[in-house]
Design a protein that fits this description.
Oligomer: single chain
Helix content: over 70%
Mean pLDDT: 94
Distance between the termini: 14 Å
Number of domains: 1
């Protein structure tokens, strides 16, 4: 369980740092486009960079103590699950997208399934 939480923390940390420092390049790589205003770039840094960075730090903190790890797994399930639901909703409502959206959706589903397996094993 600790490893699952730490791996997710590292992924969110790297994602947060990358979006914080290189929002235009990250947006271009992931979405094939980027905002064309300062406000758009600032929002990318804050939303994608800041939320990911903050969640990563929370996960690292929670991974330290055994009694917090199940709560961290629940947080991962809920956050990544929310991302998967909204990504799938976007694909349904907005139409087909680039391959990164489908790759992210698959990864998100796998993370949620792994998290649920850990949760149900540890909560019984």
């Amino acid at each position: 369980m600790k490893g699952f939480v730490q791996i997710n923390a590292w992924v969110f940390l790297l994602y947060g740092v990358a979006f914080g420092l290189f929002p235009e390049a990250m947006s271009q790589f992931i979405t094939d486009g980027f905002p064309n205003s300062n406000a758009g770039m600032i929002d990318l840094r804050a939303t994608y960079g800041g939320i990911s960075l903050g969640f990563a730090l929370l996960l690292f903190y929670m991974a330290r103590e055994a009694q917090n790890r199940l709560t961290a797994v629940i947080a991962i399930i809920l956050i990544v699950g929310g991302m998967a639901v909204c990504r799938a909703l976007g694909i349904i409502l907005d139409g087909p997208s680039n391959s990164m959206m489908y790759i992210y959706l698959i990864v998100e589903i796998v993370v949620v399934i792994l998290g649920l397996r850990i949760y149900f094993r540890k909560s019984n």
